[in-house]
Inverse folding.
């Protein structure tokens, strides 16, 4: 739920922002495939939104994304793996796929493929799993690249942000690094991204007095993981002129305060956006180009070859269009300009927008984005029933708040329908969803057209009656089940409580009602980690191990559908993407394990081996000497793991070895993922020398 919302009060100040998702309604084009579900034929559509999640650029040596060192897109025969077409209501496998140039030339038996394409380059999958490339249900590609230029303050397992001291130390270290110096030179502030009060030991937001430990000379700003809140130091408050008890709250935002009424540094919604976009609004061409480059890298390494920029500012549209014109895009990027930004509609008269959803050098405008409320974990989402625990200084019946009036919401949705622009709408709270559905109903009365594919983005607290109403209106949903892992425990203990917390992102009920469902990451709110998205959609397991709303889990195959065929439908691109079908784009992702054949609890351990865009390799894992391959649990593996257990887990017993990979070097490396009897899952790399001695190559780390 990245909310670098460009609100009305801020739009005159800033030139750079983040895209947000809006609701979209299903539209029927003859060019699109209809997905058959039971007795019904339903249009599938869902768009996801992106937040401010510190998309850390920290790369291990084994990962490589490089558009400049791609293979060419000569005819290539893929074989010897689990080739999953994603076509149909149940899994279908084929022996071979052949790509010729940018398209799929053949899907079927290996014998026939070899007969028809005798000179094709051979690509032996060596038991890996091949799927159509993933499409981003909702995210903010540009922002993913932008926040990677700031300090990563995410809580474990994605970053070091476990407590106030860790945040301060990380900011100090970052500012002293070469990356930090570059960032400060560009922006003039020390900036960090991704702290989360729900995961901090203090269960609170760092305030100005805390961030003064980073610097009293320079301004400091940190963004909440939701992207809807932030905090800054005393120097920053002084620069903004927010130092008095008489300081008014910015329009559509709020300054949290000390007991004497003076701002304490914590900002909600447009108070935060006002500061953030003032900082990044003057980004130069180097920053913009780097943001696009880094954003693409993060998406490609996670198998997403269609990325969304779900709340784009005019300057960001220009930046991405410029990179497209220079031939610097090696994935597809679809932009949804923020409707509230001045100049948002300008680009619909350009070559980057067409009613038939075609790309120009990998870039296009898909429609528009609207934002109607804030973040549930940040407690700014607009609910019909009060929060389980109110934020500081709020009444017990606090329900969050809307971004705009009903009449204004109605006017924006009507504008989208009038122009037949697909609209994505950020709505987390059920009150905001009511507002959106009411606006759609009115817009359909005045400007109805049959295939609009209007999308609810996030829909965290959507009610069952709203699901049924959305289905009746032809509205579809891009839901955010990653909340079950990242904030599920927080939803239970503080945000919603049982039973409301059990029903967040109810994918199963939405699917049963006939909605086209996609599942998203909202990067940079979380990393654009496709396997984490799939894991959460399938398992709905919280950080503490609780299954939150087990009846809303999707099957692994349905989960993959939300990333492929159903996502392609959401984008009006079902004729070109989403399944391995002859004539469609040669866009593939190759995984080291089959999500349909492993224990679903271990889906998050799957690695992306390769990403192929239009027949060209744009990402592959960099194999070390000898390469990695799957391995059985034999006596050597057990001996290696016993060595680790004795060294790291005294008092805890092994429950199960989840997966093993091996690498032949001068000896043997074992990459082992294992479950302990306390419910934790760990990963370690152990080296066995030729002499038989064991040593830990990569320290044991908890993955869940």
């Amino acid at each position: 739920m990245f909310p670098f919302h460009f609100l009305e009060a801020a739009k005159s100040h800033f030139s750079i922002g983040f895209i947000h998702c809006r609701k979209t309604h299903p539209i029927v084009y003859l060019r699109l495939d209809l997905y058959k579900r039971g007795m019904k034929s339903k249009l599938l559509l869902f768009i996801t939104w992106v937040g401010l999640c510190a998309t850390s650029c920290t790369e291990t040596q084994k990962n490589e994304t490089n558009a400049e060192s791609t293979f060419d897109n000569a005819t290539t025969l893929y074989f010897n793996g689990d080739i999953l077409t994603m076509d149909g209501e149940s899994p279908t496998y084929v022996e071979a796929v052949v790509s010729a140039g940018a398209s799929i030339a053949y899907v079927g038996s290996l014998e026939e493929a070899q007969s028809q394409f005798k000179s094709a380059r051979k690509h032996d999958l060596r038991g890996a799993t091949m799927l159509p490339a993933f499409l981003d249900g909702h995210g903010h590609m540009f922002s993913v690249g932008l926040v990677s230029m700031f300090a990563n303050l995410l809580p474990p397992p994605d970053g070091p942000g476990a407590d106030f001291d860790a945040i301060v130390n990380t900011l100090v270290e970052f500012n002293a690094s070469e990356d930090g110096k570059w960032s400060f030179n560009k922006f003039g502030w020390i900036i960090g991204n991704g702290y989360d009060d729900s995961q901090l030991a203090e269960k609170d937001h760092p305030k100005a007095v805390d961030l003064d430990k980073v610097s009293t000379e320079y301004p400091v700003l940190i963004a909440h993981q939701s992207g809807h809140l932030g905090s800054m130091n005393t120097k920053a408050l002084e620069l903004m002129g927010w130092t008095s008890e008489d300081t008014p709250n910015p329009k559509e935002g709020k300054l949290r305060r000390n007991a004497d009424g003076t701002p304490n540094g914590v900002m909600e919604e447009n108070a935060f956006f006002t500061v953030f976009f003032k900082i990044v609004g003057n980004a130069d061409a180097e920053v913009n180009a780097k943001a696009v480059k880094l954003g693409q890298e993060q998406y490609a390494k996670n198998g997403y070859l269609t990325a969304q920029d779900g709340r784009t500012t005019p300057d960001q549209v220009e930046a991405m269009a410029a990179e497209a014109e220079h031939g610097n895009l090696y994935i597809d990027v679809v932009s949804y300009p923020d409707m509230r930004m001045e100049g948002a509609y300008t680009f619909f008269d350009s070559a980057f927008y067409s009613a038939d959803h075609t790309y120009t050098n990998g870039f296009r405008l898909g429609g528009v984005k609207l934002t109607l409320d804030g973040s549930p974990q940040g407690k700014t989402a607009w609910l019909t029933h009060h929060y389980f625990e109110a934020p500081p200084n709020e009444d017990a019946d606090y329900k969050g708040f809307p971004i705009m009036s009903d009449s204004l919401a109605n006017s924006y949705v009507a504008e989208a329908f009038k122009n037949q622009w697909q609209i994505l709408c950020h709505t987390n709270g059920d009150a905001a969803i009511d507002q959106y559905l009411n606006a759609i109903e009115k817009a359909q009365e005045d400007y109805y057209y049959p295939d609009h594919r209007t999308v609810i983005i996030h829909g965290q607290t959507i009610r069952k009656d709203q699901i049924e109403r959305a289905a009746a209106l032809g509205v579809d949903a891009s839901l955010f089940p990653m909340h079950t892992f990242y904030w599920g425990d927080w939803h239970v203990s503080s945000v919603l409580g049982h039973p409301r917390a059990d029903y967040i992102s109810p994918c199963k009920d939405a699917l049963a009602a006939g909605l086209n469902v996609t599942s998203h990451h909202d990067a940079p709110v979380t990393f654009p980690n496709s396997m984490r998205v799939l894991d959460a959609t399938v398992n709905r397991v919280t950080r503490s191990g609780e299954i939150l709303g087990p009846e809303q889990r999707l099957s692994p195959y349905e989960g993959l559908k939300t990333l492929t065929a159903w996502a392609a439908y959401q984008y009006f691109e079902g004729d070109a993407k989403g399944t391995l079908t002859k004539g469609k784009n040669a866009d593939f992702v190759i995984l080291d394990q089959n999500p349909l054949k492993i224990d679903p609890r271990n889906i998050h351990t799957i690695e992306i081996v390769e990403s192929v865009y239009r027949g060209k390799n744009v990402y592959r894992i960099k194999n070390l000497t000898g390469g990695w391959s799957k391995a059985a649990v034999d006596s050597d593996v057990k001996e290696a793991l016993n060595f680790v257990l004795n060294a790291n887990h005294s008092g805890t017993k092994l429950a199960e070895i989840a997966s093993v990979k091996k690498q032949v070097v001068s000896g043997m490396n074992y990459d082992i993922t294992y479950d302990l009897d306390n419910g934790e899952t760990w990963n370690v790399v152990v080296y066995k020398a030729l002499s038989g001695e064991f040593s830990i190559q990569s320290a044991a780390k908890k993955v869940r």
In short: The domain at 628-702 is CATH 3.10.450.10 (Nuclear Transport Factor 2; Chain: A,).
